[in-house]
Recover the amino acids of this structure.
């Protein structure tokens, strides 16, 4: 039996760990897969060490431990798991609900790739904080594109009828 999570509950559990909302809602295979993938990417990418060094503001150490070949998978897994959890809370119309999540995954990945090159006021934000900042334009553009597409489809539907 599937438990219905609220949208906020699904998003917050996903932020804690991809796969938790799926496990809580009874989707055990999918939830276990998300948790395992998150663990494998996190361990092989040394992401927790990079997070720790970033929060201690030892950005050079964060850059030295992170394995970009693994961590570049993380934004897509993280945002897909979050979208999947969110989607399972929706009743009916889900048109374009994936767009903010997809654009966010793209922008966070770009932020991760650019993190060794970009500084803010001469200070490097590193491989954790800069990608986090890139989430903001990713969400904004995703919501804007979704709004434009929904408006276009509603106008088109009105003209067909």
């Amino acid at each position: 039996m599937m438990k219905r999570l609220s949208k906020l509950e699904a998003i917050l559990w996903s932020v804690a760990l991809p796969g938790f909302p799926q496990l809580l809602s009874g989707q055990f295979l999918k939830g276990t897969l998300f948790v395992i993938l998150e663990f494998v990417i996190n361990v092989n990418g040394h992401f927790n060490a990079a997070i720790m060094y970033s929060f201690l503001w030892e950005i050079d150490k964060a850059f030295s431990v992170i394995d970009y070949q693994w961590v570049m998978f993380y934004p897509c897994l993280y945002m897909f798991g979050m979208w999947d959890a969110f989607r399972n809370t929706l009743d009916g119309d889900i048109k374009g609900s994936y767009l903010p999540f997809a654009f966010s995954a793209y922008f966070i990945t770009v932020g991760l790739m650019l993190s060794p090159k970009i500084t803010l006021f001469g200070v490097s934000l590193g491989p954790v904080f800069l990608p986090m900042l890139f989430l903001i334009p990713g969400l904004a553009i995703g919501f804007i594109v979704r709004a434009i597409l929904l408006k276009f489809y509603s106008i088109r539907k009105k003209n067909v009828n």
